[in-house]
Amino acid sequence: MANYVFDFEWGTSELAKEASEIPNERIFYTRDPVSTGHQGTGKKVNWSMDINLYMSDDFALTETLVLEAGNTIVKTPQYMFIAVSHSDELRI
Fold first, then answer.
1. pTM of this structure
2. In b/e form, how buried is each residue of 37-52, taking b as 16+ CB within 10 angstroms?
């Protein structure tokens, strides 16, 4: 698997298997491709322009960038929603 993964979902569901040719091995994950150092430094990451959504059919041996700044995955049997960061700044 890849380093600096923040979110992960299997790419298929029972409903999707019936309707398409999605491989059982497909995964979607969000990760920061440029991070270095120890991932467990205690730094909490909420939103970042550096975290992207990727997909892979071989457990991240090869990956495809699906969406830049895609931070969080919410998947239901019928849909998949991705929250996208528009800024690293928190505005209240």
1. 0.80
2. eeeeeeeeeebbebbb
